[in-house]
Amino acid sequence: MSVEIGGIGSSVKRKEDARFIRGKGKYVDDVKLPGMLYLDIARSPYAHARIKSIDTSKALKIPGVAAVITGKDLVPLNLHWMPTLMSDKQMVLPTDTVLYQAQEVAAVVATERYIAADGVAAIEVEYEPLPVVVDPKKALEPGAPVLREDREQKNNHIWHWEVGDKAGTDKAFRDAEVVVKQDLYIPRIHVASIETCGIVASWDKVEGKLTVWMTTQAPHAIRTVIALVAGHLGLAEHKIRVISPDIGGGFGGKVPVYPGYVLAIGASVLTGAPVKWIEDRSENIQADSFARDYHISAELAAKKDGTMQALRVKTIADHGAFDAAANPSKYPAGLFHIITGSYPFQKSFVEVDGAYTNKPPGGIAYRCSFRVTEAAFTIERLVDVLALELKKDPAALRMQNFIKPEAFPYKSALGWEYDSGDYGRALKLAMDTIDYAGLRKEQATKRAKGELMGIGISSFTEIVGAGPSKQFDILGIKMFDSAEIRVHPTGKAMVRLGVKSQGQGHETTFAQIVAEELGLPVGDIAVEEGDTDTAPYGLGTYASRSTPVAGGATAIAARKIREKARLIAAHLLEANPDDVEWKDYKFQVKGVPAKTKTMQEVAFAAYTNHPQGMEAGLEAVDYYDPPNLTYPFGSYICVVDIDRGTGEVKIRRFVAVDDCGTIINPMIVEGQIHGGLTMGLAPALYEQITYDEQGNIQGGNFMDYLLPTAMETPNWETAKTTTPSPHHPIGAKGVGESATVGAPAAIANAVVDALAHLGVRHIDIPITPWKVQQILKANGAAE
Amino acid sequence: MAVETAPAKTTTGQKLHRIHVVVNGAAHDVDVEPRTLLVHFLRENLGMTGTHIGCDTTSCGACTVLLNGRAVKSCTLFAVQVDQASIATVEGLEKDGKLHPIQEGFHQEHGLQCGFCTPGMMMTAVGFLATNPAPTELQIREAISGNLCRCTGYVNIVKSIDYAARKLREPAEGKAPDVR
Amino acid sequence: MRFEGTLDIAAPRDRVWAFLTDPKQVTTCAPDVQSLDLTDPTHFKVVVKAGVGPIKGTFNMSVEFIDLRAPEHAEVLARGQAPGSAVEMRNTMDLVAAGERTTLRWASDVTVNGMIAQVGARLMQGAADKITQQVFSCIQVKLESPASAGISANPA
Fold it and tell me: Phi then psi for A720, rounded to 5 degrees?
């Protein structure tokens, strides 16, 4: 029956496909309004410079240019700076100094896209270059140029954060039989969703209403931010409508507020016309929020028999010019303290220091619930370093140490309470699927012949579903989420959500939750999200939170409806409500299978024949504050072959066993894992953004920033175990990001494993052919 | 059928050029600036927003259309270059209310998530399958290696194209007519 | 980035000096000059078209002679911008006379910022070598040709 109605567990084909395969999706750049103007942005070629003058006269003379906006124009409006989510502030447009290359310097508004670009080219800015700091370690040294002159604190240190038992951890290290240490740099990368960011802002002067179509993962939060930041200009929250239409991929990059959005809104208010801003790809990679950029030094203490005891981690976080992290937690390093991973460390201590540099501000998650990938990569790499040190098999070492299934709910040394898990089962399934023992034999044979083959494991634990209100908020707004369900008289339902899909398939999966709870066919349930005028307030989609939080809200709202429906069914069945039960997706008088009412019959009655004394209608709202986060996990095994001539790493096989609790739609979950794995492969082997000493971006466009194509991406093999979350209404944990979190370590471990006999213990990602070739040459192993 | 569009305004003193172009079977005679890119011509002048823009370096393929049957990146051609040519875009795939096999394949095999790369990916596939009706998996992967997708990991896109290839190879006769 | 080299010119040092420190003359050897605007004897503005690989731009350069010790040493600072790109060049020239010939030792410290640096970084060395070669072979040809013998040592 569940399959017939398209309930939980069925691979329902996606409803949203119908418009996308016809080219009828409606993305922000597809919005065209009468009289609309186009905004384009002049950006700084310098990473650090004082602005001596900005001459806009030539731009203003171009026919079709309606306005040019500079920082000075924003000062009277108090819009030249805006707050970030991390108690820092960020320039919208500079008045004195630019702090990173590609920083916004001025905006041109014109009647056509091309004319706006002409205007940008005609703006003349005189700069005085200043000393550039791109290395966060140098930025923190005494005497380094102070980048943020606006701060009272005259250095580049943003914050220090620590968690755990320092004294206890230090003692454990002093007493340890074995200590391994590894420095890791997790480079700056960019989500590079195929749709860039953009906005259409339309200010209706008569109504005093602002409508914006915007590439945002969190439309409601954006509405509140606009009201808070621009309230003094007369923008009130009930007259701000944020519409997040179809979004061409988010991955965290569409959580922050970028200056371009603010400029377009300001330009619409200024000109009285709708204003569109769509950034191009180079702007997107060069100026929008980055991810990672963590310089990590990690140590693990263990017994000689391999028992892991303590973990100590010191990290420098490069935040660029402003701490504009899209971080939903109270912790400046996000959920980095999930770093104890799948292992029961007795003691752990983690400290992180944030630094300002002359780079674009950030960061964002890159498909994880903020700093979880950094954590998973570090611990899973470190476990392999320990395995090498102890000459133990990395699978056996993991099996020996895993938190045992009976230990859940498990309280970690750094304060998290893991909801459920069975790590050994997932790793065993992965090993059986890929024939781990057989691969080790093959590797030994090949190694004897001089061929390079490696096997890498990653047994990660994720932490998603931000989050419980005691720990998680955005600018004080707690991170609940919401669902509103209306069942219409003919038994068709409308579901509105506070989250917003960017490709995850919400129109299908959330309809499936309602189908399961209410017994309505999935095709009779419409899901709507992203319009703040109609949807209930929610915090949006990122950090794999839609299913854990809005999914919970949807199930509970549906159950509220079902409870009312039961009373109506009892009325229709002329039975005592206590004698009416929900069975096989229908109401039935207990023990009388012939006496049933369907939800459709009940819905009709709710509007035509409801019991006296009961409110008419059949609808419910739920704002769900999750009692805990969810902890998806998995074990990945990667097999690589390395070309001794070119240093190229070829992924031969990759088996991903994921456990995300209850699965709503297996087809969509598998698709999410495929995509997540590819975004794990990307930083492991290809993607990175670096800067030269002048702060010039290397990797600022799609010619230099290498997204994996179909040629690099292997045929992912997936399998699953199912360990439901005990606290979630349907037992689901969320899956959008697991694979991105888990995959990089499996790939890096495989490459190191292939080269371990040459004495290699670690290679920083991305592991490019050049890096591998250098190692092969240094060890006389190159062909 | 010929659709006459009013001459595009230019405020920049750029000389306008009249081009004649057939898009999805419909003829258009339009005045364009010489610098107007084909993708902007399709999206802005003709209002056909199914063709997307994902980069500025001819790398991502989101803007792929067919030019006289061959897949091209419409961000890297000027509109004036397609004068007298025939263009096919995603909007023209569905015929008489019946989905093209490539559209069916993407839906059946879950070959799309956010949908942004999908039109370009499908047009590349259509152009490719016309030259290679029975491709291997590797050939499909090579064919779409100029199209970037950030959501799907390509596995299901490859399956979707293979689905379409198989469907397109089915003999026309001896098959029950498609029921809508 | 630093570029340097030595050039042997079959012309007397005074003539070489005069040529190299005269904006009007020396810019005839710069690539694709669009305009030249003399501010004073030691400052001038020049607009040049230049590019690296696929990235081309029109650069508005401000040039300043910051150290002139005739006829043996000159230091020139040139700063300029094209939309999205900026360049700064600090050039030194030392002239050593050897009878009727002159040895020119030159060095150029070049800092580029913006689009040209991002996209063209890997092509920069090659592009710079090519431009440098063109510039110096032009200088050599002009100074060694008989027509240049009449060049005044005092161009103003």
Answer: -145, 155
pLDDT in the model for residue C152: 45
Q: Which of residues 286-325 of A touch C (CB under 8 A)?
A: 286
pLDDT of residue A111: 97
**Mutant choice from A48, A52, A54, A101 vs C, greatest count of C C-beta within 10 A:** A101
CATH architecture of A28-131+197-278: Alpha-Beta Complex (3.90)
CB contact under 8 A, A701 and C85: no
CA A664 to chain centre: 20
Residue numbers of the domain that contains B43? 2-90
| Position A612, amino acid | Q
3-state DSSP assignment of residue C99: coil
Domain stop point among B30, B57, B90: B90
Please judge whether A282 and B119 are an interchain contact, meaning their C-beta atoms are less than 8 angstroms apart: no
pLDDT digits (tens, 9 = 90+) for A232-263: 888 999 999 999 999 999 999 999 999 999 99
Nearest to A685 by CA among A707, A704, A656, A710: A707
How do residues A157-166 score in pLDDT, each as one tens digit?
999 999 999 9
Beta bridge partners of A316: A295, A353
Strand, helix or coil for residue C16: helix
DSSP helix/strand/coil, A512: helix
Count of other CB atoms within 10 angstroms of residue A364: 27
Is A131 near chain C, with CB under 8 Å? no
What is the rounded CA–CA span in Å between residue A522 and residue A117?
47
Give CA A183 to chain center in angstroms. Answer: 25
In order of A191, A196, A324, B79, the CA distances from A281 in angstroms are: 12, 6, 20, 21
State the total domains in chain C.
Answer: 1
What is the 3-class SS of A600-648, one letter each residue? HHHHHHHHHCCCCCCCCCCEEEEEECCCCCECCEEEEEEEEEECCCCCC
Across the interface, whether the CB atoms of A696 and C113 are under 8 A apart is answered: yes
The residue with greater pLDDT, B78 or C83, is B78
Contacts of A286 in chain C (CB under 8 A): 118
Same domain, B36 and B114: no
By residue range, what is the domain housing residue C127? Answer: 2-145
Check whether domain A480-624 has CATH 3.40.630.30, yes or no:
no
Q: Would you say the pTM of this structure is higher than 0.90?
A: yes
Q: What are the chain A neighbours of B119 within 8 Å (beta carbons)? A: 23
Instruction: Give dist(CA A345, CA A169) in Å, integer.
Output: 10
pLDDT at A163: 98
Q: Is residue C102 part of a domain?
A: yes
**Residue positions counted in chain A:** 783
Catalytically annotated residues of A:
217, 367-368, 737
Contact between residue A656 and residue A687 where contact means Cβ atoms under 8 Å apart: no
A690 touches chain C (CB under 8 A): no
CATH code 3.30.365.10 region(s) in chain A: 290-403+420-466+628-778, 480-624
Q: Looking at residue C54, which CATH number applies to its domain?
A: 3.30.530.20
Residue C117: pLDDT band (50, 70, 90) is: confident
Q: Nearest residue of C to residue A100 by CA position?
A: C114
Dump pLDDT digits (tens) for A496-524. Answer: 999 999 999 999 999 999 999 999 999 99
ipTM over 0.95: yes
CA dihedral B144, B149, B153, B157 (to 10 degrees): -50
Are the beta carbons of A45 and C115 separated by less than 8 Å?
Answer: yes
Which residues in chain A are classed under CATH 3.90.1170.50?
28-131+197-278
CATH 3.30.420.40 correct for A290-403+420-466+628-778 = no
**pLDDT grade for B68, boundaries at 50, 70 and 90:** very high
On whether both B61 and B17 belong to a single domain, the answer is yes
| Same domain for B157 and B131 | yes
